[in-house]
Specification:
Layout lengths: L8 H7 L34 H8 L4 H30 L6 E2 L8 E6 H4 L3 H4 L4 E6 L11 H5 L2 H10 L15 E5 L4 H17 L2 H4 L3 E4 L4 E5 L6 E3 L2 H10 L7 E5 L8 H9 L3 E3 L5 H11 L4 H8 L10
Parallel strand pairs: 2-3, 2-4, 4-5
Antiparallel strand pairs: 1-3, 5-9, 6-7, 6-8
Helix pairs in contact: 8-12
Length: about 325
C-alpha cells in the first residue's frame, strides 16, 4: 500500500486472477457444457490460510511484481509529470515578505510569526541574517496533497526562498546555512514551530537530516539592570530559580520582567536574541523519528490518544 499508494482495487482486480482447485459434492451448472458452476457458496466455504496471503503479498511474488510494472507504467509517469509542474510553480514564485541578508556567507533565514514578532529585526540583525514573515499558524501539511499545499501563498513563497523542489534533494541550491524558526515561547509558538518541522519532514526530510533546521529560544525572564550591568536572560523558570538561589545579593540590582513574546522585546533584548543565540537543532536519524512526527501531525487521533494517556516523555537537546 505504501509503495503503490495510487493503486486502486479495480487496478488489482483487472490484473490479478486466482485459480482454485475445489472438490464439490453434487455440483450444478448453468448449461450442459458445464462452463459455469451455479452452486451457492458462503464465505465460510472458502478458507484461505495466512501463509497463502503472506506469500501472495510478498514483494518477490509474481503477482506483486506484475502490479509494480503496471503501477510504474500508469501512475509514476503521471506523478512525475505533476511534480515537475508543481516544481515549476515554485521556481516562478517571488516573495513579497522576504527581508534579504546583506551578506551571503554563512547566511541565516529567520522565520517569524507576523510583523510584530519581527519588528526589531532590521535594527538588531547582523549582515548575514534575513527573515521571512509568516502570517500566524501555517498549514498542517502532513495529510495534504502537494497541489493543496501550493494553493497557500506562504508555502509557495517559503519553498521558493529556500529553493526547495518536491522529490529532490536540493542542498546544493539552498541559499542559507541556517533555517531558524523564531516563534514565541508560548503554546502557539511551539505549535507553529511543530507545524514547520512537520512540513519539512513530510516533503523535504533531507533538510532536517542534514542539520539545517533550528529553533531559537527567547528568554522567558529578563533581568533589566538598574545601572552599569548587562542584561540577564533566563530560558526556563528552573534556570531563573537556580540563579536566584545563588545570587541573593544581586537581586536588587535588576528589575525582572517576564517575556510576553518577541514583539515585546526591547532593541537590546532583540540584539541578544539574534547575536547570542540559544538554539535547538532538529535532527532525524531513522524511521522511528519520522514515525514520531507523523504520530503528532497526521489526522488520525487514535495513536496520539494512546501516547497522551501513557507516561511518555519528549526529550529536547539544546546546543
Amino acid at each position: 500500500k505504501n509503495d503503490m499508494k495510487l493503486l486502486t482495487l479495480k487496478d488489482v482486480e483487472d490484473k490479478v486472477s486466482i485459480f482454485t482447485n475445489l472438490s464439490i459434492g453434487n455440483p450444478t451448472y448453468n448449461s450442459q457444457t458445464k462452463e459455469e458452476l451455479t452452486n451457492k457458496f458462503t464465505k465460510n466455504d472458502l478458507v484461505i490460510t495466512d501463509k497463502f496471503l503472506t506469500e501472495l503479498c510478498d514483494k518477490d511474488s509474481l503477482i506483486y511484481q506484475s502490479l509494480v510494472i503496471f503501477y510504474e507504467a500508469k501512475y509514476l509517469k503521471e506523478e512525475k509529470k505533476l511534480t515537475d509542474k508543481l516544481n515549476k510553480v515554485i521556481r516562478g514564485t517571488i516573495s513579497t515578505k522576504l527581508i534579504k541578508a546583506s551578506v551571503n556567507k554563512d547566511s541565516e533565514i529567520w522565520l517569524f510569526e507576523g510583523l510584530s514578532a519581527s519588528s526589531g529585526f532590521r535594527n538588531a540583525r547582523a549582515l548575514n541574517q534575513g527573515c521571512y514573515l509568516l502570517r500566524g499558524k501555517i498549514l498542517n501539511c502532513w495529510d495534504l496533497e502537494k497541489t493543496q499545499i501550493l494553493e497557500n501563498i506562504e508555502m509557495r513563497e517559503l519553498y521558493a526562498i529556500l529553493k526547495l523542489q518536491f522529490g529532490k534533494d536540493t542542498e546544493k541550491d539552498l541559499p542559507f546555512k541556517f533555517v531558524i524558526i523564531g516563534t514565541d515561547q508560548d503554546q502557539d509558538g511551539v505549535h507553529i514551530a511543530g507545524l514547520i518541522l512537520a512540513m519539512f519532514a513530510r516533503h523535504f526530510p533531507w533538510i532536517i537530516r542534514k542539520g539545517y533546521i533550528y529553533r531559537a529560544l527567547s528568554p522567558i525572564i529578563t533581568g533589566m539592570p538598574k545601572k552599569g550591568k548587562e542584561l540577564l536572560n533566563f530560558y526556563s523558570q528552573e534556570e531563573f530559580n537556580i540563579w536566584e538561589r545563588n545570587n541573593k545579593k544581586e537581586m536588587s540590582n535588576y528589575n525582572f520582567v517576564y517575556g510576553k513574546g518577541l514583539g515585546s522585546m526591547t532593541n537590546d533584548q532583540y540584539k541578544v536574541f539574534l547575536q547570542q543565540q540559544r538554539l535547538i537543532k532538529f535532527t532525524m536519524h531513522d524511521a522511528k523519528d519520522m514515525e514520531s512526527i507523523q504520530l503528532w501531525f497526521q489526522k488520525s487521533t487514535e495513536a496520539r490518544k494512546v501516547v497522551m494517556m501513557s507516561d511518555s516523555q519528549i526529550i529536547y537537546e539544546t546546543e
